[in-house]
Amino acid sequence: MYVMRRALSAGIAALVLVVASGAGARAGGDSGPRGVGAARAAGTAAGASGAVAPEADVAHHGHVSLGDEWLRISVMTRNHGPSSLEDATVRLEFSLRPVGGLRLPERCLRAGERVVLCRTGPLVADGVGSKTSIRLGITGDPAEAVVRVATVWNGGATDRDPVNNDHQVVAPATGDPYAF
């Protein structure tokens, strides 16, 4: 019995040593021992190359409105930390096909008929966010528009709360802003 306990203790110690050295994090697992979670909470996580990645919480909030032949989208992107980010990219996808000349902010580009990608620029941890506003001309008399907002790139950071990155907003054609 004593030999089995000693072998089990040695095996657990070896496992803790391997995980603490980052091997568990490089494998992509989030279910490691408390020591790995504490290291991640301090703003670090090991990637496949063994490099340390920052931890940040990118979040999008804003509103969508549809009315008077316009679809208006306003997105405020923030980083709740703990690490700052040099840049992030938000994807805006809309159910209606825009018409006419699509004038986009300088840091945005069209990625498809109904998709726009926008750089946020630097996002300081717990600082003021980056605002993106787009106005799209539409035709016909649609009853509603659906807009999807999502982070497609966050500078390689680990995000432990990805739920606030992705939104789907249904905006009836009332002209009222619908928040997300």
Describe the protein's topology.
Layout: H1 2-20, H2 23-26, H3 34-41, E1 44-46, E2 52-54, E3 58-67, E4 70-79, E5 89-94, E6 108-112, E7 115-119, E8 130-137, E9 144-153, E10 167-172, E11 178-179
Describe the protein's architecture and organization.
The protein is α+β, with helices and mostly antiparallel strands and 180 residues long. The protein has two domains: 2-54, no CATH class; 58-179, ntegrin, alpha v. Chain A, domain 4 (Immunoglobulin-like), CATH 2.60.40. It has three helices and eleven strands, in the order H-H-H-E-E-E-E-E-E-E-E-E-E-E. The protein has helices spanning 2-20, 23-26, 34-41; strands spanning 44-46, 52-54, 58-67, 70-79, 89-94, 108-112, 115-119, 130-137, 144-153, 167-172, 178-179. A hairpin with a 2-residue loop joins strand 3 (58-67) and strand 4 (70-79). Residues 1-47 have low confidence and may be disordered.
Write a concise synopsis of the structure shown.
The chain is an alpha+beta fold. 17% of the residues lie in helices and 38% in strands.
**How are the strands of the biggest sheet laid out side by side?**
6-7-5-9-10
For the termini, the CA-CA separation is 59 Å
* CATH homologous superfamily label of the largest domain: ntegrin, alpha v. Chain A, domain 4
What percent of the residues sit in helical stretches (DSSP H or I)? 10-25%
What's the CATH first level of the largest domain? Mainly Beta
Radius of gyration from the alpha-carbon trace, in angstroms: 22 Å
Helix-strand sequence? HHHEEEEEEEEEEE
Main pleated sheet? 5 strands, antiparallel
Strand content: 35-45%
Give the integer mean of the pLDDT values.
Answer: 79
Would you give the CATH topology of the largest domain? Immunoglobulin-like
Count of DSSP strands: 11
Tell me the number of structural domains: 2
